[in-house]
Write a structure and sequence with these properties.
This protein has 377 residues and is α/β, with parallel strands linked by helices. It has helices at residues 2-10, 14-18, 28-39, 55-65, 74-81, 90-100, 107-123, 135-142, 146-163, 180-192, 216-224, 239-247, 264-272, 281-287, 298-303, 315-318, 322-331, 337-350, 355-364; strands spanning 42-48, 126-133, 167-175, 198-204, 228-233, 253-256, 276-279, 307-310. The protein has a single domain, classed as Alpha-Beta Barrel (TIM Barrel). The structure holds zinc ion.
Length: 377
Amino acid sequence: MAVLQRDLRRSDTFPVFLSRKRQADPLPSTYELRAFLQRMPKIDLHRHLEGSLRLQTLADIAMEHGIDLPSLKTEDLRRYVQAREEQPDYHRFLAKFRLLRRFYRSREALERIAAEVVADAAADNVRYLELRFNPIALSRAQRFRLQDVVEWVTDAIARAQQTDSITVRLILQIGRDEVLSVAEEILELALTYRDRGIVGMDLAGDEVNYPAHRLAPVFRRARQEGLGVTIHAGEVGGAANVRDAILLFHAQRIGHGIHALENSEVVRLLLERNIALEVCPTSNLQTGAVHSLSHHPLPDMLALGLRTTLNTDDPSISDTTLTDEYLIAVTAMGLGWTQIRGLVFNALEAAFLTEEEREALRGQFGEWNEIRPPDFL
Ligand SMILES: [Zn+2]
């Protein structure tokens, strides 16, 4: 494995080399490793519903609703949906969400997409998933009632969990450019529907142009009410955004947070408060948050003792799975078995669950004691 890692580290085309669909002649151990990581029970705490739309489903919805697309062939749609082939760019990456929300066109479409997200995660052996979505953006895109969007998603997720071996919880997302009254409305919805699996609130969007301090009281109240709070910060913005997320927004988890390492005081704050970091390497590469996967700070975050977790962000936009993210963590960043295990169990401890539910999840992950990693890991 050591030889494989060195070879891969030398290659600037590493993400393409590892692509499931474009591998021409991969080393056999890459297949073996990927199969092992795929079988491994996993947890994803950071995945967006609006970034998780199958290409075939997108084509079907376009056809049904007469949405104009450059092509209806899934291979042609890759360039339209995915960021893999493009120059890394944060704002272009965010713009994909506006584009994809056009396809959450009807109740049936939303329910289908939500069910497929759960099925795809379960097929990747994700046993616990926290899925987030922006209800106001989805309702505005199609003039749906806000409550309807939340009910459709929560119902679809509840149904999907009955057929797949996975537990799913939901996080309601607020954009950084949102007005205060709408953010308050979203919080009320989260509280109203918390018995339908809503466990937290998220702040997302452009952290460079929107510090969003005016929205902080909404998130502080969410914490007081017992909801989890996670804030996208330190993704492309600086460590100060991470500090604000903790001190002003009372975040227990940070979406990405990779730029926190630029400031030792912020690192100390993360350690003192045991704040979890939701790291998504492929997304970080595609937004330009990191220049290469081999220079990603994930190994440093673990070495510092930060409560670091590994996640997908947007499987469809990034053309990834959680298995792929673990594969990258091993082959591009050189993580070993102890660190891999640490990432999974950090996620278990950082999940927005009651202690009783967490204990039950720990029980489910007891099978980890039986896992024997391959020799090369
Ligand atoms: Zn995200």
